[in-house]
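Title: Comparing notes on inverse folding

I've been comparing how different people in this forum approach sequence design from structure. To keep things fair, I'm posting one structure and asking everyone to reply with a full sequence. Here's the target:
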């Protein structure tokens, strides 16, 4: 798991007109899934494709589901568990998925620092 600078990720997403955001979504999915030790949820690539095919509807569900995985990952890492399901869902519904990505990255950064897995 790699600690990422959230401001840099947001700037890269804006500068690349969302292309970096796609990469960021895939990486967030896969790293959170690995930290949660989950084998059931889809991979990042599949999550992106489902979001694309459903015109963003799956992306809203994805944000909600990622909050659950993030809480499980926090529990596994021994850090304070935050239940952000409603926050992520509301932000996604209002088209603020980039804020959800930033919050997810913050949680992953916290886990990486706790485990000493900072690359």
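Reply #1:
Here's my take.
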């Amino acid at each position: 798991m790699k600690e990422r600078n959230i401001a840099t990720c947001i700037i890269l997403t804006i500068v690349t007109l969302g292309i970096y955001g796609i990469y960021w979504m895939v990486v967030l999915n896969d790293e959170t899934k690995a930290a949660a030790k989950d084998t059931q949820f889809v991979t990042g690539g599949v999550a992106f494709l489902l979001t694309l095919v459903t015109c963003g509807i799956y992306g809203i569900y994805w944000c909600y589901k990622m909050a659950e995985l993030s809480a499980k990952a926090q529990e596994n890492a021994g850090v304070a568990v935050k239940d952000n399901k409603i926050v992520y869902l509301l932000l996604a519904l209002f088209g603020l998925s980039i804020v959800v990505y930033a919050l997810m990255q913050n949680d992953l950064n916290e886990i990486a620092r706790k485990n000493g897995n900072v690359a």
